[in-house]
């Protein structure tokens, strides 16, 4: 008669990592640019008053660190393609970061 083969299965120990409870949600970090879409929406619809209100609110929340809000706000003030104020603020913020890293 033919030999019967007994199927043996190797059982591996269950890893403890799979048994640990996982966080389902990543930790939330403050998003400085969270209302850019709304600023853009008001701007392209030419609803400038609402756009200015959202910009003001966003800049207050972020303490002036929202790049897009500054950029669009400078379009209202200067009405030029590359606002000098935007460029200067970016240079100043870069310098502040560099100084704080050194000290």
TrEMBL record:
Q: Name one GO biological process term.
A: protein localization to cilium
Cellular compartments per GO CC: ciliary basal body
Q: Which UniProt keywords apply?
A: Repeat, TPR repeat
Q: Where is the composition biased (Polar residues)?
A: 8-18
Q: Does the keyword Repeat apply?
A: yes
Source species, domain of life: Eukaryota
- Region Disordered: start-end pairs: 1-25
- What is the name of this protein? BBS4 isoform 5
Q: Which organism is it from?
A: Pongo abelii
